[in-house]
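Pasting as-is:
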Amino acid sequence: MVVGLVALAGCVACQAHRRDYDSMTPEQRTVHLEASIDIEAPLPIVAKFMADPCNEFLWQPWLREAVMTPPSDGAGTRRYYVNRFAGKDIVNEYVTVTFDDTGLTYETTAAADVQATGGTSFRSLAQSNTRVTLSFDPQALGFYWYMSDQQTTRVYRRSLAARLEDLKKSIEAGNYEMQLRDEGVTRQVSEASITCRKSKTSR
């Protein structure tokens, strides 16, 4: 999930959107974002890493809490996130729509600050490498009173590219549990859900 980008959109909780936003159709508000990166790890390792909500803290800098219900990913799984951005807690929730060995698609619930759809796909490459493609379609155009549509699109694209670089570094570094401890992330697992939290004092 592209949590950081929705957190970016959620910053509008403390800003007014442009006057024309309410009169725009969902299609007019939506910007399509898609980017890929090649990771030096086999597909099963990459997919397993990305299925664990706790690992999202290693490549989503604004994330403070993640809850996945039930604790295994699949169609109908809900992921609830709290992001800390611009001094505000931004809450977002996704539901997995489709899920298989090649990736997943998702959509936000009505509780999300900005409605969006998106997906993650995996492709095996030579030498046990994996190409990860993230797509994200937020209804963000017009949402920021201080940015044009072109500026909004540019900011989102830069953020998506940066998150993919962080994802690549985290997976290729290995020792994921050690990375999580270094980031101050704790994990609670029950039959109903996985809950991951990051202390506010951690780096």
